[in-house]
Amino acid sequence: MKISAKGRYGLTAMAYLAKQYESAAPVTILSISNKFDISKIYLEQVFSILKRSHLVVSIKGSQGGYRLAKKPAEISVYDILSSIELFLTEKTMPITEGKVPALDRAIEARVYAPLEENIKKSLASVSLDDILSAVAEETSPDNLMYFI
C-alpha cells in the first residue's frame, strides 16, 4: 500500500475540518496551509478532488472556505484516500507470465485479493470521528508522562 503526500495532506486537512465541524464556520485553505505548513496551491488541488468526491462543500465569499459535506462519523479514511489516490494498492501482474496460469490465479485469489480487501475494510472502519477521538486521547492529561 502506498499513500502519497497528497493523500496524507488530504487526510490531515479533513481531520482539521472535522475538528471544526461543530462550529459550522467554513475553514479557508490558507488557514490550513498556515497551520500545517502545506503549500496553498497543493491544498487547492487536494480540495478540488475532495469537492468533486462530495466530501467537502465550498462556501463562496469573503467569509467563505470549506466544510465537511457529512458528519465526521460518516466519512471514513477509505472515502478520503480512495478519492485522492489513483490506486491504494499496486495492481499485480501475473508472476509466471502465463507459463503457469493456475499458480497466478491461486496467488491472486489467496494472497492479493484478500490483502486488498482487508486494506479496504481497515481504512473503511476508521472515521474522522475516530481520528479526533485518538487525538483527544493523545492530548488528555491522563496520558502525560512525568520524568524525575
Description:
By secondary structure, the protein is mostly helical. The chain has a single domain (5-143), classed as Winged helix-like DNA-binding domain superfamily/Winged helix DNA-binding domain (Arc Repressor Mutant, subunit A, Orthogonal Bundle). It is built from 6 helices and 2 strands. The chain has a two-stranded antiparallel ribbon with strand order 1-2.
Annotation keywords:
single chain; 148 residues; mainly alpha; two-stranded antiparallel sheet; 5% strand; globular
CATH topology: Arc Repressor Mutant, subunit A
The CATH architecture classification is Orthogonal Bundle
How many distinct beta strands?
2
% residues in beta strands:
5-15%
How many separate structural domains? 1
**Class per helix and strand makeup:** mainly alpha
Give the helices and strands as they follow along the chain: HHHEEHHH
**Number of DSSP helices?**
6
Largest sheet: 2 strands, antiparallel
Uncertain regions spanning at least 5 consecutive residues:
none
| CATH class designation | Mainly Alpha
Strand order of the largest sheet: 1-2
Radius of gyration: 19 Å
Overall 3D form: globular
Fraction of residues in helix: 40-55%
Mean pLDDT: 90
Any idea what the CATH superfamily is called?
Winged helix-like DNA-binding domain superfamily/Winged helix DNA-binding domain
Distance between the termini: 42 Å
What can be said about this structure in brief?
The chain is mainly alpha-helical. The protein has one domain: Arc Repressor Mutant, subunit A (Orthogonal Bundle), CATH 1.10.10.
